[in-house]
Specification:
- The chain is an alpha/beta fold and 348 residues long.
- The chain has helices at residues 16-31, 46-54, 57-64, 85-105, 125-137, 165-174, 192-209, 214-217, 236-245, 251-255, 268-277, 308-313, 318-332, 336-342, and strands at residues 5-11, 68-73, 110-112, 114-115, 143-145, 178-180, 223-225, 259-262, 283-284.
- It has a 6-stranded parallel sheet.
- Helix 6 (165-174) links the parallel strand 5 (143-145) and strand 6.
- Helix 4 runs parallel beside helix 5 (125-137) and helix 5 (125-137) packs parallel to helix 6 (165-174).
- The chain binds zinc ion.
- Zinc ion is lined by residues 8, 10, 75, 181, 226, 288, 291.
């Protein structure tokens, strides 16, 4: 069976109680930014979770013919810039717990990816602890790592700085990749899912391309750059030229084992370009549904984020399409096959 694995989906349809908990956190912080949050309880029933998915992500999986989604908390709600470390820790734990419940309710449809409790000005100790909990206890297979937890002000060092090493060490120890994914913009110059997301994808690629020791120190570190790699594939020539001027290795060599792009590009021409310039081994199928762009394209009559159609119609041959839909994800997410076997989606 040719599985179709969507490597990028978010729980954007969570029951109201989750948002209410977050609003309460923000109220606690109004008078005291150092307010120490405790986790507490969010009352959400299994039926409410089922209801939140059955007319959304599950229905779309079924309609579009995708099999399983690698699923994480709502990215724009990660809000690492809000409050302090205790705010992010308690919030992330709840968001990840909900993903875990989804993976238990629908083990053949969803596999978990963790939100990390990053907090500007804090080190990554809490993030490493939460990653360990999510992988070892909740059965997740990856994480979303924000290169800019400040929400648009870029106050953190670039991704090759030793600041990030504790989370990389934990990723290697647990054999999981990270999707580089920012959260909401709190800078009025950047629109969250437009310029902020795509700008961050592009920025992360450039930082990693210029990294001197990162992939020497961590040869097995794997990053997925979402949203088709931001501006990178379209400007592949510019990045190749810069790489050449800086006497770096070729882009193909640089990305080969460590950098992957998803297919969250919402038109055929964009996907055709992506598969033309980026090596097929480095492209993972994804839709980011239900996410940033929810409407129907008047040119095609189909949902913008129905990305399977674009891969079906792109010029790759069947062998390469299979890589994009399935094989590459199984290679990048080391723990994925184990999960697929456990739930009977592949044979041992
Ligand atoms: Zn996303």
């Amino acid at each position: 069976m040719n599985l179709i694995i969507d490597c990028h989906g978010h729980y954007t349809t969570a029951p109201d109680a989750l948002g209410e908990y977050r609003e309460e956190q923000k109220e606690n912080l109004e008078d005291n930014p150092f307010y120490e949050h405790v986790k507490g309880i969010i009352e959400i029933t299994d039926d409410q979770i089922r209801e939140s998915l059955e007319n959304a992500q599950l229905k779309l999986q079924n309609e579009r013919g995708t099999d399983v989604t690698i699923f994480s908390p709502r990215a724009s709600w990660m809000g690492h810039h809000i409050g302090n470390q205790s705010t992010s820790t308690t919030w992330s734990e709840h968001c990840n717990d909900l993903i875990y419940r989804i993976t238990e309710l629908y083990p053949k449809n969803f596999i978990g990816v963790a939100q990390l409790p990053q907090s500007p000005g804090s080190d990554l100790t809490a993030s490493a602890v939460e990653l360990e909990r999510c992988i070892s206890e909740l059965g997740f297979i990856g994480c979303n790592l924000s290169p800019d937890p400040s929400g648009g002000y870029w106050t953190s060092p670039p991704l090759d700085d030793r600041y990030w090493y504790p989370i990389y060490e934990k990723m290697i120890e647990l054999a999981v990749p990270a999707m580089i994914h920012v959260s909401a913009s709190c800078h009025r110059c950047f629109h969250t899912t437009g310029s902020h997301y795509l700008g961050a994808d592009t920025t992360a690629f450039q930082q990693l391309m210029m990294a001197k020791n990162l992939f020497i120190d961590f040869p097995d570190l794997k990053f997925i750059i979402p949203h088709g790699g931001g501006a990178v594939p379209y400007h592949w020539g510019r990045f190749r030229g810069l790489s050449d001027m800086m006497k770096l290795q070729s882009l193909e060599e640089f990305i080969q084992h460590n950098i992957f792009f998803d297919t969250c590009v919402y038109h055929q021409q964009g996907i055709d370009l992506l598969v033309d310039v980026v090596p097929t081994d480095n492209i993972l199928f994804a839709s980011e549904m239900v996410g940033a762009v929810r409407g129907i394209d008047p040119y095609t009559g189909h949902y913008f984020d129905d990305t399977k159609r674009y891969i079906d119609d792109c010029p790759l041959d069947e062998v390469d399409k299979h890589k994009v839909f399935s094989e590459n994800a199984r290679r990048v997410f080391d723990r994925l096959d184990h999960h697929l076997e456990r739930v009977g989606l592949i044979n041992q």
